[in-house]
């Protein structure tokens, strides 16, 4: 299970960082490309803060919070590896760890996180939200971890 956890996190971070590199090199500022039969938008957005640019005026705080979250997730995953079972929690934590690596790397390397995906909806505010694969992994991992805590088998 440990190797699967490592590979899951590495896969998420590697794919996300590769897409971010491609996006930085091949998508112009303000350019939008329709994807998923018009249901999605591929664009380049630089996010200097947390989700939806919260705390963008405090880059040192954002970097510190990201590094702390990454450390906590890494520590938590180490504890989980020592427990039998809890596969859903382990998968969720691995997804979150991979997402945290992808976004934290960006914050320290570029000074911002590259976001590139959006959903096309009738609600303009929802359509304006741009995210990346690391964000999706963080969200999915959190859902799996909470689900596991609430409904998983207790040993």
Describe this structure in words.
With 155 residues, this protein is of the alpha+beta class. It has one domain (2-151). Helix content is 61%, strand content 12%. The chain is built from 5 helices and 3 strands. It has helices spanning 2-26, 59-81, 87-109, 124-128, 133-151; strands spanning 32-35, 40-47, 113-119. The protein has a 3-stranded antiparallel β-sheet. A hairpin with a 4-residue loop joins strand 1 (32-35) and strand 2. Helix 3 (87-109) packs antiparallel against helix 5. The longest helix is centred in the first third of the chain and has 25 residues, at 2-26. The protein starts with a helix and ends with a helix. The mean pLDDT is 93. The chain crosses the membrane at residues 129-151. Keywords: Aspartyl protease, Cell membrane, Hydrolase, Lipoprotein, Membrane, Protease, Transmembrane, Transmembrane helix. It holds the Pfam family Peptidase_A8.
